[in-house]
Structures are given as C-alpha cells and as structure tokens.
C-alpha cells in the first residue's frame, strides 16, 4: 500500500506486481510506475503513459 | 541490460512500460517454465561493436516497446548484434510508416485503401483536387488515431495542410487515403506465426468516426473466416511479420481491406473478448524460434 502523491488516496499494490508495472490511483486516476524500494517493497514514481510516438 | 544466458529456454522481453500485455507475456512464460529477462528499454545501453555479439547473438527478444522510435532503434541494435527480434527490423521499419506499408501491400496485391502522397503544401492541395473529397489525412508515422483527420472539403484541407507546414518536417510528408464507406467498425486480427489466432470488431466510440480502442470504442468477437485469414496472412507476409496485429475495414464496395499492420500489437481487448490465450501462443512461437536458432 502506498499513498498517491496527487490526492493522498491509498493505492493497493497487488501481491503479484512486478517492477515497471503501471498502477492507477483509484481516486484521482493518476498513473504511477512501480519501482523497487530500498526496503525491498515497491515505491511509485509518475508514469509516462503516452508519448508522441507511442501506440499501436 | 544484464548478461542473461541466451539459452533456448530464455526469452528477453524489451518494454518501456509494463501494461497488461507485457505482464501477461511474463506470466505466460512463467507458466511454461520459461525464464524471462525483462528489460526496460530506458535502462538499456548497448555497445555497438563486435565484442557485444558474444552477449547478444542467439537471443530471442520479444520487442514490446510502445515507443516507435525506441523500438525501431533498439531492434536495429540487437538484431545487428545477432539477436532474433520479434518482429525483425524490416517489419518494424515498414509497418511503422503508413506510406512504406502501403507500398508493400500494393506490391503484394493486398486490398488496401487508395492513397496519394505529396511533399509540399502546394502539391498536397493539388493532390487532393485530383483525389477528391472526403479524404483522410494520416501522419506517415503515428498511432492510436492521433493526428488523423477527415477532410470533407477544400477549406478543411487547406487549414490542416497550412497547420502542418509549421510542424516537424515529418508532417510535411502528406499521405492521404480514401475515406472508405464501411460499417462503423473495423477489425483487429492477431497473427502469430502462420495463422490468425483471434480477431475482434472494434466499434467507434460515441460521436467518433475512428475505431481505436484508445478513443473509447467497444469490441466484439469477429469470426476468423477463410477470407479474413487469407488477407491477413497475405498482408503479414507482405511486410515479413511474425507476430503482428492486422487492422482491416469492411468496405461497402470492395470487401475486406487492410489499412495497417501493427508491429508491437496490443491484444488486451482481443483476449478479453475472445478468451484466446494470445500471450501463451506468442511465447510458444518465440520459444520455437529460439530452438531453431
């Protein structure tokens, strides 16, 4: 569990999560990328979810 | 990129964001007892020299980078060092450009929308007079329906063309397609190896003429008929694809036509709607390729 830096809502990190996965805040919809925390768990950082040359 | 062992039971998955698709591939591999080396392309550095061949030769890489330019260049580097990248560089470079792909479809006799190209503001305007309205303007490189416009008349066309003249030079390459009369849906078919594994209809979102799921469209199962299979395989072979998504329209007058082949296809909605184990089949295909060496 981490708190959304935007709205402070709680974001659940599922048990099967992997580094690099995108999680979304259930309240404000902001997207974050999971990064390994020093503690061994996960931390979050703002995710790039769209780029000019992204998509299929 | 860490060393990895590059053996026949290891897959490298190259990504720039882990979406549902990438996670499902990692899980599918795990279920099959296959080790994956998951590499964020943003963290990838590759020495482009002979020495690096020892590290990369013989690897099978599933290219899942969603950024077209990163995907293209990382594929060039890895393939150049002897890795088997799915899909190969030729496929990535052709399918990423609508004009290049159009020419390959044309050469192979794949039914595709009529198109016209021009290379300046004046010639673009003249091309449209010849081509007629309505016409669709598409950037030669681009995805998710971005910057695709429906030009209903000369005034709309002039405005769009003038805007583009102030953009990056890539947008000064004018590529127009006929506006195909069709039902308010298109088809996304997923090809793995030598057959179509599943297909969906994608319906336009409310008030939207484009059918991209990214634009709010909805999906339904599309039966894989022999006609669909044949045209998809013809288009896939025309660009040399291994695992691709083929986008088609059902023209009222000309039947099925292919408008795009996607090199790093998304398949979440196709799995959701059809229940077909697409990630499992993709992993199987990559492993078989790995063993062939």
UniProtKB/TrEMBL annotation, chain A:
CDD domains (alphabetical): LysW
InterPro entries, per the entry: LysW (IPR005906)
Domain of life where this protein originates: Archaea
Pfam families with a match to the protein in the record: Zn_ribbon_LysW (PF21344)
Protein name: Alpha-aminoadipate carrier protein LysW
Organism: Candidatus Nitrososphaera evergladensis SR1
From TrEMBL, chain B:
Highest taxon, organism lineage: Archaea
Co-factor(s): Mg(2+)
GO cellular component: cytoplasm
Gene Ontology terms describing biological process: lysine biosynthetic process
Family matches, as SUPFAM superfamilies: Glutathione synthetase ATP-binding domain-like, PreATP-grasp domain
Pathway entry: Amino-acid biosynthesis
E.C. number(s) listed in UniProt: 6.3.2.-
Domain ATP-grasp intervals: 102-287
GO molecular function: ATP binding; coenzyme F420-2 alpha-glutamyl ligase activity; metal ion binding; transferase activity
Enzyme class at the top of the EC tree: ligase
Pfam family name, one: RimK
Keywords: Amino-acid biosynthesis, ATP-binding, Ligase, Magnesium, Metal-binding, Nucleotide-binding, Transferase
Family label: Belongs to the RimK family. LysX subfamily.
PANTHER family in alphabetical order: COENZYME GAMMA-F420-2:ALPHA-L-GLUTAMATE LIGASE, RIBOSOMAL PROTEIN S6 MODIFICATION PROTEIN
NCBIfam families: LysX_arch (TIGR02144), rimK_fam (TIGR00768)
Identification of the protein by name: L-2-aminoadipate N-acetyltransferase
Native organism: Candidatus Nitrososphaera evergladensis SR1
